[in-house]
Structure to design on (494 residues):
């Protein structure tokens, strides 16, 4: 990568300079040479240490650094803001053509063009996914595995192709590491009940963090109540980042499991999962990574991360509702007992005993949601064709721009300002109830979320019961951020 020596100062545009990038590398990339000066911290070094955060091959952060300095160069020092500058493309696709892939983006709401900024709740679906669902129900619809006829074979092949696609997308060794579930919530419950609960006794401890979604709190509370185990919670700093030193202090001889979010749905904080996983492994503790909010934004390689378990939902990554996946190491799946019982997961049944299929089948009792699984595979293929590195770079530029724009709104406070952050802009406006913010913006065609976002503990840590949350995806535009800012400025200045 060539960065011109005569580039403008990034700080003029609200972007990180080399010293700040060096600090980011030092904080989140454990292999980084902490003795290096900012001047010695090259882009190549930063790229090389990206695997510590994303578990990907060296070079994973190149597009981000390109985005920082590319935007500065394009702006040419004309303004402290981007002045509508955009990257204009994701990979080899224009943003205009990508938006055309999503039929719902042409909808109108209250007489206004829809601006979808509720992507942390769910993402919209590209035509490729919609068409794949139609194709399945038109040409392949059948139950799987259980009949020797052509449509059963087609349906089975489609399901297993999706499993292979998921494994490849997250760097799993085999499709047999992938268990289909209805989503992240069911996945965490399955892991808690089938894998973790049998190992627990009174006084054992489970480590969580303050950033967790309710779906990564309540299942652990339930098994703690049943077993006498104890939950311990790692704190965060004022920016919304996990305090790693305090996290490590929670581990001791009684610690049996840890479960943590890769990205906070309420704040957008990217947690240093490689570092946190390594700490847990140092104490012989397995870790579950909740990737519901990271799967569509950050390249993940479970093998490079040495992840024990990971779970995500399809609807968070442009796929259908009602489908998700668990990744687990083979030895974990082999040792665990089924969570649900029924058809499909059995090898033989009598009234005296049941023999189960090998994993992953033994965790997939009943009729699978084949069409939704096939749709998820199509979604991952769509995202893979764009390239998650390209997506991350564009979304990061969009997020940085949005932070700058929203700072122009009087009395608006961003909640969650960690240096490692993606997709989510949570904010409050002093004196204005968040519900009123949501209603007003809806009247202008904006779809964003207000409330506690199923993350009450972390928001209460900021003294809040709720925020307004705008969350971006790769089909959002700089113009939409400007329209959002304009609407908020008009409202607060009334």
């Amino acid at each position: 990568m060539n960065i011109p020596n005569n580039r403008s100062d990034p700080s003029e545009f609200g972007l990180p300079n080399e010293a700040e990038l060096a600090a980011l590398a030092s904080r989140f990339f454990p292999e980084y040479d902490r003795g290096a000066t900012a001047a010695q911290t090259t882009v190549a070094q930063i790229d090389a240490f990206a695997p510590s955060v994303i578990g990907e091959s060296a070079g994973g952060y190149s597009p981000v650094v390109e985005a920082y300095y590319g935007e500065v160069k394009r702006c040419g020092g004309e303004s402290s803001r981007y002045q509508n500058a955009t990257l204009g493309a994701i990979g080899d696709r224009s943003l205009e053509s990508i938006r055309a892939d999503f039929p719902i983006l042409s909808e109108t709401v209250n007489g206004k063009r829809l601006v979808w900024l509720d992507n942390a709740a769910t993402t919209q679906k590209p035509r490729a996914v919609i068409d794949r669902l139609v194709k399945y129900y038109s040409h392949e619809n059948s139950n799987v595995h259980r009949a020797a006829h052509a449509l059963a074979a087609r349906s089975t092949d489609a399901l297993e192709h999706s499993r292979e696609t998921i494994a490849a997308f997250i760097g799993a060794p085999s499709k047999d590491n992938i268990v289909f579930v209805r989503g992240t919530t069911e996945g965490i419950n399955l892991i808690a009940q089938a894998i973790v609960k049998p190992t627990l006794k009174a006084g054992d401890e489970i480590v969580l963090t303050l950033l967790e979604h309710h779906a990564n709190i309540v299942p652990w509370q339930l098994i703690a109540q049943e077993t006498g185990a104890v939950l311990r919670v790692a704190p965060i700093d004022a920016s919304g980042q996990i305090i790693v030193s305090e996290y490590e202090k929670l581990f001791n001889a009684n610690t049996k499991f840890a479960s943590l979010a890769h990205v906070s749905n309420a704040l957008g904080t990217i947690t240093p999962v490689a570092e946190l996983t390594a700490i847990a492994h140092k104490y012989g503790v397995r870790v579950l990574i909740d990737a519901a909010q990271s799967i569509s934004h950050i390249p993940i390689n479970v093998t490079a991360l040495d992840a024990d378990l990971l779970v995500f939902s399809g609807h968070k990554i442009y796929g259908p509702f009602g489908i998700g996946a668990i990744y687990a190491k083979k030895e974990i799946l082999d040792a665990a007992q089924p969570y649900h019982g029924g058809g499909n997961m059995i090898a033989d049944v009598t009234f005296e005993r049941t023999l189960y299929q090998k994993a992953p089948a033994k965790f997939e009792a009943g009729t699978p949601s084949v069409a939704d699984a096939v749709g998820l595979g199509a979604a991952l293929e769509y995202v893979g064709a764009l390239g998650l590195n390209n997506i991350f770079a564009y979304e990061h530029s969009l997020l940085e721009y949005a932070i700058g724009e929203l700072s122009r709104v009087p009395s608006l406070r961003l909640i969650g300002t960690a240096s490692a952050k993606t997709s989510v802009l949570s904010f409050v406006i002093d004196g204005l109830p968040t519900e009123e913010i949501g209603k007003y913006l809806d009247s202008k065609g904006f779809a964003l979320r207000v409330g506690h976002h199923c993350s009450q503990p972390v928001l209460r840590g900021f003294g809040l019961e709720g925020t307004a949350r705008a969350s971006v995806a790769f089909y959002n535009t700089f113009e939409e951020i400007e329209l959002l800012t304009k609407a908020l400025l008009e409202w607060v200045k009334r």
